[in-house]
Design a protein that fits this description.
Tetracycline Repressor, domain 2; transcription (chains A, B, C, D); HTH_TetR (chains A, B, C, D); mainly alpha; Transcriptional regulator (chains A, B, C, D); DNA-binding; Arc Repressor Mutant, subunit A; 9 helices; transcription cis-regulatory region binding (chains A, B, C, D); 68% helix; 2 domains; homotetramer
DNA sequence: GATGAATGAGGTTTCATTCAT
DNA sequence: AATGAATGAAACCTCATTCAT
């Protein structure tokens, strides 16, 4: 939220000057789209697309109703952009992290999955899961985007790790796809939950997310391991 | 469609009851509320609460716009009724099934969980999961209902089974709540998915639900078992 | 204006009863479209399409904003309907009158043209000329309608009369089309004028329309006659 | 485009005038108002006042939205200026031409009317007729302007010629005003038509304007002449 | 002078709800 | 009980105008 990287850090600030932003008008223009996207995501996730008023998005972003339309052609456009933008950011992160790590499949899964999903859960990207679940049927193009950019690469990545474990003898010869779902669905659900029932006053899930993620991964690993630890 | 047997089955009234009156008309009247609820559920799940028009609900139920208001005081009323009605029906079913079964914790879980969730997934009750996920934040009373009628008793039931397994030595002394979530979240997610991404044209999950549910339960059981089968 | 023929004069009213209208609700519904069209025509002609507010049309027709949309799908729809409806009515009238008359070409023109154009000028159909002139370029479909339903048949009719006069020796062998325009353009312009400059306070044209029309037709007839009266 | 010779023709400044300054930039500045008026006229005529966007006017004139407001205080101001400017230019031309000519009333009308109206029809001044017809009722001040600057002097001029013909025995003792309208209305209508139905794809008037104007004047002259040519 | 980002009043259209029939 | 015509609040979006740069 409000994490705009302030675009192209404009020349190293001269020592002493407190990095004055170049000019309020220009600054604003550069940041508007991102601020609007943040506001839109927050409200779409909270209230749903149809129940969110464009004026509220604008107000939350600190601009007037009309300004929104200088940057996005319609409320629906805003929805598309919010999803595709936030999703691609997060997926790129995941691939980068995967490339950086190494080790046994077991180790890899224990670190990579826990890290990436914790970051996702705690960033506002987690809201996108709930948003997509709620709105795909009204906006079929989102389905395609999601499949190509998220489901497919995600399954590939995790499925690849499971397969490696099988090949190396760490894991039993399980049905890879089925295991991928067993691993991933609770994590997705965690994100969804955080922005639906989890956001309500009610007692809710009395369990630390991080603790649960670790326990869940361990549970699955033990379930597929050839040599379960005692 | 749990309840309404659809007006076609006009079985002869049992002797003793006064010759059933012009049937088709009387029957209809009695079934209206339920038909409206069916229609509402279908559309709320498909389009979301805000994007569903009362007129569409009425039309789908085969009545006029005004008639809807003879049975329900508002669109929101319809939402509340749909959820609480469908939910209580399904939960009662679950408790009944649980009471009927017996055997080891492992066995119990393998049959009970698979059966109940498969029925739920295939009935239109599965849509309620998606509906609740999408709408709770706009209607906080739903959260309370859900917690009291679903989350709480559901966790109790499954948690109870896990605890029994631990007590009997079938399962390792795991954190019960955590395991409950690992078990249940993919199953909930399956229901949600069926009415969001799963309902789109896109390739989607290429996995038989029943096969997955079995595999998932097995995976978890192996993960918590003290004597995993080789 | 407000000249709705009250649809299907419902059975001869019993002598004594003042022809009670059948039921206010039903009555209204039947008359609404026509009342809305009247209101729309008046305002579109007066202010132009873009400057007319749908709410004003509704108010002038004595209904609320929303009611308008029960009968017409959009403001533009209203424009199309107004034009095509009023035009076809008037043209049918003209053809009927032409069929009814007979006599020499000269006589025919002197009666038919004067009568039809005077009626048109004084009915609210005259506004349609101004409306079409002002709006065709924004709504090209109107051009087609106008050409097929008005320009074409109108030219045919008048051109036919001129040709008959030439054939019978009443008129010199003039260029028919050119004469048609010389005849018709001032009459069209009279209609247009009545709803633009003619509607302003300014001194305006100090000439009785009927007197002008007669004089104009006489002038043209003398211009093409083979035996101009002395 | 009566006035602005378009910045391309940079004829060498006549000796004596100080070497023209950085030309293209200075020139532009001086021509801005006129370029804006041209753009405004074109769009007002094409789309109507209300449906024309100030931004489109600015873009067509090659400046930004804000610049427009440096020269004109409002969109309405632009409308007033466009009309009064174009009108006075054209009327002045007409008076000049009238003063330059001489001869019999018949001759005068045959040359003067044909020339002036052909020039008007082909310049963008013709659009002003359509614009005025469409917009007077929304801007009553235009009516006054039009009456004083156009209708009045125009009627005077033409009426004067007719009267001269009557006095000289060329024309019969007709009603002058009526004849003026018979003469002028088709010519005005020609201008209006050119920017409304005439601008559409439809078949349209299949008649050369110049041929028609000549024929029309001839027709009227024959209609009022005391000695019609055989 | 020139720009174009920003504003917000105002216009069109939708839709939950009412109520006369 | 059932209908569906009518309402009007409210939502989306546009665009004339302003003003900081």
């Amino acid at each position: 939220m409000s994490a705009e990287p302030s675009e192209r850090s404009d020349l190293p600030a001269m020592a002493g000057t407190p990095a004055t932003p170049p000019a309020s008008h220009q600054r604003r223009k550069a940041e508007r789209p991102s601020e609007l996207l943040d506001a839109a995501l927050q409200l779409f996730v909270e209230k749903g697309f149809a129940a969110t008023k464009t004026e509220d998005i604008a107000r939350l972003a600190g601009v007037s109703k009309g300004t929104l339309y200088l940057y996005y052609t319609s409320k629906e456009d805003l929805l598309r952009e919010v999803i595709s933008q936030r999703v691609s950011t997060r997926i790129a992160e995941g691939l980068a992290q995967a490339a950086a790590h190494q080790g046994s499949a077991t180790e890899l899964m224990r670190t990579l999955l826990v890290d990436w999903w914790m970051q996702t859960l705690e960033s506002d990207a987690s809201g996108v899961f709930k948003l997509v679940v709620s709105e795909v049927r009204n906006f079929p193009e989102i389905a395609e985007l999601w499949f190509n950019e998220v489901s497919q690469p995600g399954s590939q990545l995790i499925g690849g790790m499971v397969q490696r474990g099988i090949d190396s003898g760490e894991f039993r010869p399980v049905d890879v796809l089925s295991v991928v779902y067993s691993i991933v669905m609770p994590l997705v659900m965690l994100c969804v939950h955080r922005h639906s029932l989890g956001a309500c006053e009610c007692p809710g899930m009395s369990l630390e997310p991080q603790a649960f993620i670790r326990a869940h991964i361990d549970l699955v690993l033990r379930g597929i391991s050839t040599h379960p630890e005692p």
